[in-house]
Input
Amino acid sequence: MKVLIVNTSDIQGGAARAAYRLHRSLLTQGVESRMLVLSKSSDDFTVETISSTQREKITVKAGSYIDKVPLMFYKNRTQTHFSPAWVAFGDLEKKIEEIKPDIVHLHWVCGGMMRPEDMARIKVPIVWSLHDMWAFTGGCHYDENCQAYENVCGRCKVLGSEKEKDLSRSVFLRKQKIFSKFEKLTVVGLSRWLHDCAKKSTLLKEKVHVQLPNLIDTDIFKPFDWDMARELLNLPKEKKLVLYGAMGATSDPRKGFTLLSEAMTQIEDQDIAFVVFGSERPKEEPEIGVPTYYLGKLHDDISLVALYSAVDVMVVPSMQENLSNAIMESLSCATPVVAFAIGGNVDMIEHQKNGYTAKPFDTADLAKGIMWILDQDETEYHTLCNNAREKVLKEFDSTVVAQRYVKLYQEVLDGQ
Output
């Protein structure tokens, strides 16, 4: 069985990390897996790129900007990511034909990687893991709860558009025309929430749907010595540490930093400190009433393991979330997580068993959840930590989940 994992990047970004983890796990299962990307950051020889020369790399970088040109006409658009996917760079079709895979497994393929038209020319069965909502919307990666994808896009909330026939409508109709030709497409919802959304969508409801999660190497993401972790990261040992982090942690509204900041102001415990990773200290730092440590971007798994092990609780206040790598990583390192009871969060966090799921967007309940974790006595807190680790070992461990993907690939090839 020859599997080709396709993603815009190999290790930069949450979807890339998830796709790369699957690729490496398939290799350990004896599957002939290769990964094809637009932009390669690792030195892994099993990862190939369609932009190997300097000229191609420059073209690719320019292409990511060119793809955004249509957005310039929408001055009132929100900060939610929107991809028209009207241009793509690199001879993807030729590269796939050279590799000759039995199955092409698509992941996050925007940013100039692939157009819907390019997908239609793939000659082997396609499995497509949905890392966000883009596959079944008119271009937004998260719909800000408008649910127009269940009918037809237009008057796009993300674009700030008042026109029915706007960019979202044209992208939606392009996809509708092209996706109707896909005979061998299996859609993988990484969370139960996104799985259900895709099944309700106009664009994908007629396809085969499977719900399978991302996976994680629990031999890498495991508890690390608390004292040493705080020393390595220069974090105070006398404080209870609350962790928050994401790509663009303080700048992406969907990630809920404003909500978390408001929740933190409602906590009166003076023994708490706040730790942020994924962003540098902002120019206008919010006043949340406790000492705050900004660690910037962490680029390797070892640093992340040390960070998760150094803190007492992780908080993920996202307003829409698929299957958060941060939640899975934190739980795997035996650190409880507090998040809103939305999306894929409830697939991983069991309320008051390995964390706390707060009422959606209720900052008072978010604050209550943080304090509920921090106020546990030593025995109760230790139980929460053990439960966190056990949840991941049972349901998201790389060996367990990779075997389920291998089974899926075989069923697709057998035409079941």
